[in-house]
Write a structure and sequence with these properties.
CATH topology: outer membrane lipoprotein receptor (LolB), chain A
CATH architecture: Clam
Number of domains: 1
Radius of gyration: 20 Å
Number of helices: 3
Strand content: 35-45%
Structural class: alpha+beta
Oligomer: single chain
Order of helices and strands: HHEEEEEEHEEEEEEE
Length: about 240
């Protein structure tokens, strides 16, 4: 009888632990979504165009990022007098980097396209994450440059796994570590985000980022919800 009571108590404690974790994860997510504009506002986000500059070893490289929600992303890079780009849609992806010696656009592996397709959701994977087929787990807190940040792990439907770190004061995401297996081996990438600003339209974006190249990416202008010609997501 004592053994049965112990097992029942253990099971109840385990259920309670999972419930607390789920509630904590959703609480962090709700506060984060509210901090960056609110759920209703985010659901109206259809396109984003960013004008950026990548600073690498004293050289400034202009970059333009064009995103159309759940349809496509194009990154245009002007370096050393050459026009480079990457394109991704729901069905394919391409890279054209003459600065790296490429003479023609190169197709992305099908598995890489499939795994990263969730990143085309510019409204954010955390918004209605259950409906999108993602899974989230609260991992407690961890130090990020002197701040004890909330830590969530999200397993995206397409297979990519991300660990997100939330500033406890602002609930902005200040760091993301992504794990990808599309290349046949696990690859980990870390990005950081800072200098958050609210646009006139009510959305909040970071204007300084690292981990998207060899230097720091600084955003000078963000335009939202403007028409985007889907032809730009096709290889010319």
């Amino acid at each position: 009888m004592k053994t049965l009571r112990f097992l029942l108590s253990g099971a109840l404690a385990l259920v309670t632990l999972f419930t607390v974790q789920a509630q904590t994860a959703d609480e962090v997510i709700d506060k984060h979504l509210q901090a960056i504009g609110g759920k209703e506002k985010l659901l109206t986000l259809t396109s984003v165009v960013m004008e950026c500059n990548l600073s690498v070893q004293g050289m400034d490289i202009p970059i333009k990022i064009t995103q159309l929600n759940n349809k496509g992303q194009r990154v245009d890079i002007t370096a050393m007098g050459m026009e480079n780009y990457t394109i991704q849609t729901n069905t394919d992806g391409w890279t054209y980097m003459p600065i790296q010696g490429q003479t023609a656009p190169q197709a992305m592996p099908a598995e890489a396209v499939k795994e990263s397709v969730d990143l085309l959701d510019i409204q954010g994977a955390l918004l209605n994450y259950k409906d999108k087929g993602h899974k989230v787990e609260y991992l407690g807190k961890e130090d990020v440059e002197g701040t004890e940040c909330h830590k969530l792990k999200i397993a995206l439907k397409g297979g990519m796994e991300q660990t997100m770190y939330f500033d406890p004061a602002s609930y902005y995401i200040v760091k993301v570590t992504s794990k990808s297996k599309a290349t046949g081996q696990e690859v980990e990438q870390t990005q950081t985000f800072s200098n958050f600003k609210k646009l006139d339209e009510g959305f909040v974006f970071p204007f300084a980022l690292t981990g998207f190249g060899p230097g720091e990416l600084t955003i000078s202008k963000i335009t939202v919800n403007q028409p985007v010609d889907e032809k730009i997501f096709k290889v010319q």
